[in-house]
What does this fold into?
Amino acid sequence: MVDGEVIKSSSVKADPEKSRITVDGVDISIKKNVYLMLNKPKGYVSATEDKEHQTVLELVPEEYQGRGMFPAGRLDRDTTGLMIITDDGVMAHNILAPKKHVQKIYHVELDIPVTQQMADGFKAGVELNDGVCKEAGLEITGEKTATVTLKEGRYHQIKRMFGCYGAKVVELHRLAMGDLYLPDDLEPGTCRELTEAELKLLQQQI
Ligand code: URA
It folds into this structure.
């Protein structure tokens, strides 16, 4: 039945977003997933709940609350930039799965100058206490700034990688996930749904 009316012809089209579709009384309407991009500001934790700090979920507009949204991946509390918030568990898992190699690109500022030695070390694989990192890209963009590209996402990974060279990360901002870049006009603390094209950019990588 579509909206309570028995449908006898297979050529009838119904929009599951707008109509209630049932078979023998069971609702089979397909629930569309929601994909939001957030420009994460400092001070928010990437979790759905936290006793001490505000969470990124608090930045999600009311209309999306109550459908089990969660952040696909973590950024530290003091890291800013692109974050995907969704109710699609499969997609979230795939974005993060190291095997899928979805690149995450970050702008980094250090307390000391960035060196070629760091760039060479990142390429070769920095050794951390939880194992050797996959090859990472480090492009020097200024005396103390760089663009870093990672293919995995370990706890505090960039901070720990630079820590191996005695450097402290003073600013960390995620610019992109795969080919999806944070748009310039998305103000810190705000989010919006991905367009179809943006969603494709993410999905084509996983
Ligand atoms: N690496 C870090 O150290 N922190 C982040 O938030 C992301 C990558």
About this structure: Residues 75-76, 79, 156-159, 172 surround uracil (CB under 6 Å). The mean pLDDT is 93.
